[in-house]
Amino acid sequence: MNDADVSKQIQQMVRFIRQEAEEKANEISVSAEEEFNIEKLQLVEAEKKKIRQEYERKEKQVEVRRKIEYSMQLNASRIKVLQAQDDVVNTMKEAAAKELLNVSHHGFRNFLKDVIDEVTEEAMELLHLSHHHPAYKNLLKELIVQSLLRLKEPAVLLRCRKEDLHMVEDVLPSAKKEYAKKANVHAPEIIVDNIHLPPAPSHHHAHGLFCSGGIVLASRDGKIVFENTLDARLDVVFRNKLPEIRKRLFGQVAA
Questions:
Q1: For 217-255, b where at least 16 C-beta lie within 10 A, e where not — what string?
Q2: Domain CATH code at residue 220
Q3: Which of 147, 243, 247, 130 is nearest to 190 (CA)?
Q4: What distance in Å separates the CA atoms of residue 58 and residue 99, rounded to the nearest whole number?
Q5: Sheet arrangement for strand 225-229
Q6: Which of these three, 85, 101, 124, is where a domain ends?
Q7: What range does the domain containing 213 cover?
Q8: Which of 13-22, 50-59, 127-136, 188-197 has the lowest mean pLDDT?
Q9: What Gene Ontology molecular-function terms does this entry list (predicted)?
Q10: 80 and 1: one domain?
Q11: How many Cβ atoms are within 10 Å of 157's Cβ, its own excluded?
Q12: How many domains are there within the chain?
């Protein structure tokens, strides 16, 4: 083989190697392009997912804030309604208490009767008695007997209004006798306290302590106290009838 043949053969080998290298380079380039496109697509999808998640998170935050604001507004409205209802009920109670001193106010008495029959009936009965000497005197006796039956103490301290003192002293003997008979015990010792209950309310002392009538009985050591005033009895009746009062005034209100 001469030099020309050798040179020709070498050139053929070079062309073959170059062609093979170019083909390999093309394969690498195509593969790299595909991997780049795949990675780029993955990055784009990942960013899209992040954006969607961020949007959903903010959307949920907006929805939560909207629900919170709605709930706060709803609660505020409910509180206003409940406050208004309480104001109406308290106004009625205050008016019923005033009736303990003003039986001649028939218009309001009729209104109360339509709304809270039993409260009115109790208040009117107590009030009527407190303004008629014989009947109120008998009521004081019954209140004393009732209080003695509740306490069942051999010795008690009694407190009343100053203006009721003479009536209380008049009925004490018969009250003790009646209690002893009902409870089948000896007549108790009743000491009338020289400290009196507040007087009836007046325009001059509208915001001071007051008592519309009745008595307070306590054990000698003061540990047991039974308040049996007209105001306390009105409170008890009103408290017991409050659900019915609310139902009649406002109906079935959704919670």
A1: bbbeeeeeebbbbbbebbeebbeebeeebbeeeeeeeee
A2: 3.30.2320.30
A3: 147
A4: 61
A5: 189-192, 155-160, 214-219, 225-229
A6: 85
A7: 135-232
A8: 127-136
A9: proton-transporting ATPase activity, rotational mechanism
A10: yes
A11: 19
A12: 2
CB 132 within 8 Å of CB 124: no
Rounded CA gap, 235 and 207, in Å?
A: 18
Same domain (yes/no): 80, 145: no
Q: Are residues 155 and 222 in the same domain?
A: yes
Measure the CA–CA gap between 1 and 134, rounded to whole angstroms: 159
Residues 81 and 143 in one domain: no
On whether both 2 and 65 belong to a single domain, the answer is: yes
**227 - beta bridge partners?**
216
Tokens at residue 25, please?
A: 């380079």
pLDDT in tens, 71-115: 888 888 888 877 877 887 778 777 776 666 543 233 334 444 444
Q: Are residues 225 and 159 in the same domain?
A: yes
User: Given this model, what pLDDT does residue 250 score?
Assistant: 75
**Which pLDDT band, with edges at 50, 70 and 90, does 186 fall under?**
very high
Domain assignment present for residue 171? The answer is yes
Distance CA 23, CA 161 (A): 120
Residue 125 lies in a domain: no
Residue 213: band (very low, low, confident or very high) from pLDDT cuts 50, 70, 90: confident
Cβ(213)–Cβ(102) below 8 Å: no
> Cβ atoms within 10 A of the Cβ of 115, count?
15
- Strands 155-160 and 214-219, by their bridges, are antiparallel
The helix/strand/coil state of 223 is coil
The predicted-structure confidence for 1-14, as pLDDT tens digits, reads as follows 677 777 878 888 88
